[in-house]
User: Fold these one by one.
Assistant:
Number 1:
Amino acid sequence: MTSLRQQEGTAARCLEFVILTVARTGEAIGAKWSEFDFRAKTWTVPAERMKAGKPHVVPLSDRAIEILNGLPQTGDFVFEGARAGRPLSNTAMLMLMRRMGRSDLTTHGFRSTFRDWAAERTAYPRDVAEMALAHTISDKVEAAYRRGDLLAKRTRMMRDWCRFCGTLPARTDAKVIAMGR
């Protein structure tokens, strides 16, 4: 994230936004300004851009809002491509990672990283993480009974995820000096 935040351009801001919101590429590059409620700090992705075909409300961390506020509002699309009035290319973030020397990464892989973080480093229930990822419930009975969106819990989770993403990893180049008795 430190290296990514030093990169210029729309693709860099979009990738950081994707990581912080755990959105799919198509959801993010198709984002329109009208989908955002800055007062509520939410982004409502319409059903037609969602894999499950249902609208999805994404709670936005302070850093995600900061990214949005730093972008020019010249057209409908939040992450506008090189051609005016068109969204960013779906390969722009992949090309950015290659230029950064990180061809070992994929945009979608950050969703998996989020899921691992939620399971291994937090006490958030599985359901909250799955809802943050906009995964559908495969069990028909459970799906029929689950009507809430866990928005308050997801808001806290995304704030914690943002904090985790902004934390520098432990230094590995530190020198240990033996102390005399």
Number 2:
Amino acid sequence: MKKLIVSGCSYTAKDYISSAHPEMDCSWPKWPEMLAKKLNMEIVNLAFNGAGNRFILQTLLEAIERTPKEEIGMVIAAWSQANRDDWQEYHRTGPKLKPIQFKNERFVKGFKWDNMRIGRLGSIFGWVRESLLGYITLQNVCKRYNIPLKQFQMIGLYNGWISGLGRTEDEIKAGLPNYVYEGDTEADRQQIRLLIQDYEQFIDEDTFLGYKKTTDLNDKLSPPMWAPIEGSVTLLDKIAYPMELSAGDDIHKISKFDEHPNELGQQKLAEVIYDRMG
């Protein structure tokens, strides 16, 4: 049985814990495990809560390099928000300060990943560009080893940031306001679209899952994700309409305080991703 290697953020993480409902048992199967069963593969789920695209890229690259290539059946990147920052720290602990194996770093003892979604140095333009180059890097590594690759935006790459970043579960419970973007939203959105279109020539759209018209899900997921797009679907379309469940789709979410997918939502994500893989 070959391996399905997946990385992503909290929508993908096997051990997701709801900060809004810490007492809730969220151990239901997540979409990577369900998808692996559909594909008859062994799952390797590297996803971690709050992860950004640097974490997703580096954990996938590490897993690819350290896994015998004949054992890899497919790699999937469920990309996150460009504004999120990821970094690694090195810790020694225990008897004689020996390094330990942290939960979100499987391969090298002592290294621990951390992340934040607000406060990253730079601007949305540079963050988007770094993400696009990450998509290309992963694509080219998989091509080198002849490994099937699928990648997609699990959550929006840039639109959440420039529209005013939504609150976390803890911020909602505390009644805190949304983040307010200080730039020119429409002008900056257009500039980012041009940036994505410029990099489109380097990305194999066959590897990038995106919009695909369906009929049986229209009553579950609302536009614009499922609205018809005339003509060919571009990379911009695929990035603009991410895989996350739509705002009005409450039946598939944990609660009004936590919009992460519940068990039904994870099942729906697995179905949608499998369907889009063709």
